[in-house]
Amino acid sequence: MNTLKTPSFTITFSIQNHWIDQIRNFLEKYAVLLIAIVLSLVAIGVFTHFYESGLGLAYNDARSHLDIGRRVVEGLKPGLAQLGSVWLPLPHILMIPTVWNDFMWHSGLSGAIQSMVSFVATGVLIYQFLKKLGVGLLARFFGVLVFVTNLNILYLQSTAMTELLLIATMTAGAYYVLVWHKEEKILHLIKAAFFIMLASLVRYDGWFLLFLASVLIGFTALRKRGYKTTEGILILFGTLAGLGIALWFLWNLLIFKDPLYFAFGPYSAQAQQLQLEEAGNLPTKGNLLLSTIIYLYALVYNSYAFTAILGLAGAVVFWVDKRIKPDVRIASLALMAPLLFNILALFLGHSVLFIQGISGNTWFNVRYGMLMMPAIAIFAGFLVDRLRSLRWVLIGLFTFVTFFAVANADAVTIDDARVGSSQKNVSEVSGWLQENTADKKGFILISAASHDAIIFSSGLPMKRFIHEGTGKYWESATTTPDRWARWIVMRTHDENDETFKLVNKTPGFSRYDLVDSYPFADIYELRPEYLNDLNTEPVFGKQK
Amino acid sequence: MKKAKYIFISLLVLSVFLLLALVVKGERGKPIYHQSRETRDKKVGGPFESTGSTSRYALTEAIVEDNTFFFSGERARFSAPDMTEYKGKFFSIFTPGVSFIGIPFYYMGKLFGIPQLTTFFSTIVFAILNFFLVIKLARKLGAKTHAAYLAGLIFLFATNALVYALTYTQHHASVTLMLLAFLNLFGERTFLKNIWLGMIFGMGILIDLPNALMMFPIVMYAVLKHLSVNKMAGRVKLSLKLSMVGLVIGLIPFVALFGWYNYQLTGSFTKIGQTIGRSDYFDPPEVREQHRLERENRDPYERKLPLNTRNQLYELYILLISNERGWVYYSPIVVIGMLGLLLGYKNQKNQQLIIVAVAVVLTSIVIYSLFGGLGGWAFGPRYLIPAAALLCSALGIAIQKFRQNILFIIVFLILSIYSLWVNIVGAMTTTQVPPKVEAINMLNPIPYTYEYNFQLLEENKIGSLVYNVYLSDTISAKTFVYGYFLAALAVLGMATTAVVLEKTKQETI
Fold first, then answer.
1. Is the pTM of this model over 0.90?
2. Is residue B301 part of a domain?
3. How is chain A split among helix, strand and coil, in percent rounded to 5?
4. pLDDT tens-digit profile of B258-288?
5. Which of A20, A246, B394, B484 has the most other CB atoms within 10 Å of its CB?
6. What is the distance in angstroms between the Cα of A290 and the nearest Cα belonging to chain B?
7. Domain count, chain B
8. Could B236 and A306 be called an inter-chain contact, meaning their C-beta atoms sit closer than 8 Å?
């Protein structure tokens, strides 16, 4: 049969092999630097975007973190004791060098810087992790891409929240656990211990990683080297990795006279969870299935379903890949620490997580699901490397899905911060304080445990506030408020508000007028006729 | 032997035509209902039950009767809510491809006073074409004749392709174009083949916008075929055949047509009905007021694009597993197609094309998991009909491979009989199965699964024209449907038996 012939034009060009090799070698050699530079630029750009849109400080907790850091360097009783026991101290310690500056404090940059650095570091770690797994250059970059294009990650790296620092330290710990399993050099074990120690000072998830890593290291050492050596390895690892936890116990003992104050104190997570439980808002407690479902939903909402499926498929391929040594497979379990920890924490009632439409009608702490992003990115990268024939299909679909996620601003962490239970819009009450107290003398009595966001948002210096951490000022002001506080900010009739609890029965409280009332707090002002007896200057000097 | 084969195929094709004819929707009138403006209603089970059909039909009718793309008030009401109101004029929210294709069919019907019947017949033409295209693709992918015919039968009768063959919607035309595009990939790329592929792609856009995304892997593969990389001593030689320009040449007329159509409606070449949105013009005042308030109080952070990642997991569940629309629930037989793709991949010859097929299937699933898998009031995962066509072609490979494996045949028969029954009942009754959220909130709740179709069947409410015109006085609807199912089953059984008994050349030797 005759077919219609058409002329065929072809453009041909050649590339010398050594050019290709040079490009490849350049990328291999400078990939880490390239990633670091690009991610730094991304981090700065995204921070600027969220700062300008006002979302950078939307999380109530972000403002509290910044206040804790600030109180260490400024206030009526500055000092390290202000680190408190509510949260683990590393994020606040890292703020100390910058938070003295008002812009750094009020822009949130003092806390965001560490998130941004952690973001860059995690990108690099994902690349290195995949390299150690023998994954090709393209898939390594893809793994990094999965992590850095996630809008939830991008948002939280722009805030003073602790997730990115936790992610970076945990991923670094898991990475060195993997490297130790591969190369068995003692230096890697020390590095793993160091980063896990840091993670243990960021959030309690790090404590679980310490436990899990110890089990993995112990198991491998026991299998290969026998009991005696395993004992030595575990002592070496545990001593450094557990140092942070030991210091935390010691800190609680020294400051609060109880090594377990952080766990059972009045501001502990346990105390908060008890309140939730009494209100019937802790349905995951004692329900393993629901805990698992809730966490998996959080994971999927944070990572996007398609990406999560890629990660899951990658994990399966990784686990059945016979080219991966069993030791490496065992070591990779360290990446799963956030998954196991969070399910366990929900099950035991130590944590609370609301998924809109699944448990309650709001979001709360949904960002916990984001902690699995490094694992998802690494396994997705692995999948793309191994499924060579489908590689471009998967990359294409990932790009497609991610484009719409970003274009639609689909970030569940932003929703939680804006309209979920993690937000607290205190602009009215803080605005009142800014407007009516900034140019007047006098202290403001307020509970930082209940109203840190108001303190932050008022824009006033920390030394204008008398709160639980101000020692004699607090003791005096809650006994004779009319001598110390010109204004009192508190939730009237709420016994959980320490200020109300202590002040409402004092005789001096009758000398105040309720001047305004808002959803989160009421404002009382001392009547003018009593101002003469009011202390308006810090008189106690340096307190211990 | 060859003669027997031809007889078998002829019988099979004849049965397919007969079975399709028996399920065509219509009602008794003078002589047939729904053919004039006075007798068209949106009754459940009738041809105009879905606005997906009415809006497209109204456009065809407007073009033929009044030489306009705009709707009169009556046509706009007939199309609502799938119509757009822009600068005081109404027009269809859909892309115009289906309506354009329907024009000659409408003309033909008008001559005999049955414009609805003939216009809707255009979809049946596409469905028949798809039957043959699935067969052709299955053969190209490695299935022998009988297995390929069985694959075609499964697609047409055991998926919701049957249900949507009776509507005036984009689904079957999309399948045709997608399969034609896929078949175009076989063999060497030539200038003419590229023009043809460009035309198919352009027509795809005119039929339904997501076709552009669904066909994207096909076009990408065709483009990349023009690029060759040869490793030589000391260098790599890259060659790009300029015949790929043919793709653009083929595409341009259809893009131009689409642009012109948009310009006529909106005064802009790129502004299309779907971006303007549905009109609530014919809704009651209180509903319109509610819509206005919703628009005013819209959260500035609300996701605005039609493809949305937030509910992807749920939508995947809807599309693949749920009893509302899921593949597994409505046509579990297509799952065997996945096995077919895996088997096809092992064949070096077609490996790349199997990857393209996987890419198209995955792309379809991903797109509609972002868009929303429910598809309004619908029967089964209607957006996945093109993906089902590819999977059914691949199913041919699986049947070919395991045709003498008893366990496989048992599983195959169980799944195909179930799928056949569900989809026949769907085709005989209605496509209008409500989403769960709507069904349970109705004043008189109705089922939100195919249970609704069985309920209609129990009530003797079926849409078959042949039954309603000629048989409704003599037998019950249930008897008719049972008879139909048995006939379809017999055809399926005959095809399966032929596959099992077919001897390949190797076996004969």
1. yes
2. no
3. 70, 5, 25
4. 999 999 999 999 999 888 888 888 888 888 8
5. B394
6. 17
7. 1
8. no
